[in-house]
Amino acid sequence: MAEKNQLDTQSIITFPNDDWRAKTGAISSAVEELEQGKILFFPHLGYPLNTQQQSLLDPALVDPKRKNISYDVGRHQIKGVANSEKEPQVRKLLEDYYQACSALIDTVLPEYQSVLRRPVNSLRLHPVSEWRNKSSWRKDDSRLHVDAFPSRPNYGERILRIFTNINPHGEDRVWRIGEPFPQLAERYLPKLAGFSPFKSWLQHKLHITKTPRSHYDHLMLQMHDKMKSDDNYQKNGQQITQRFPPGSSWICFSDQTPHAAMSGQFMLEQTFLLSVKDMHNPDASPLRTLQRITNKRLL
Ligand SMILES: [Fe+2]
């Protein structure tokens, strides 16, 4: 129990901000805390919707073939809206949410202001329980995991995510949050299969991956799978439960902080990519951590 309480105080940093654009509420150590794998939690930072936007909170608005509605900010491309009449409204909501997130970054993480890349965001309308019931264990995000994607190798690039609970019925988004990344890596690295450059080349040729998987991507994906398939770790691994109420937001590096979505419905999510070299402390990245432990270059 003491161990779990310790994880609690170590893994969540709370901020008083209640305005996306106000230049107050910044904590100078935010970037360091975030890069250590902590979650920056803003219990008073909601994203209020007007009446017209509230009407978009309907799972039937998501294309049945997709999990969420997603918006590529740079390309102005929206995917997954089942009703084309509603598309302009959804697009406006996601564009505005991106602008709000950018303003928040300027205040809380000013060092990242000019180096975050490739903004994409999503409107998540399904209850967590719905896709959990339909998924295989590998896709089940209610199992503790770090984000790594089978078809999209990212060569160590960081995945920064901002989340906002927009549930209109008072329902919390509930996460489990796991141990610090270095501890996680020490636990799983001995159990991971070796990297095969030939297999990586072949998977690319067969269009299983968009670019060849690097040694780093191989390890991250293996770790993602091993964590999710390890029932003992899921049950007994070091973890805390954190509730994110409606009207709150939180930020984390989802490639570093073990997380599991347990319940909730209706969320906005903004993703940015960040090069390791553009971090305040690149040594805290999963890439450098894995390089240190394995004593290999991995890229
Ligand atoms: Fe995830």
TrEMBL record:
Among InterPro entries, the record links this protein to: Kdo_hydroxlase (IPR021266)
Q: What is this protein called?
A: 3-deoxy-D-manno-oct-2-ulosonic acid (Kdo) hydroxylase
**Source species, domain of life:** Bacteria
Originating organism? Rouxiella badensis
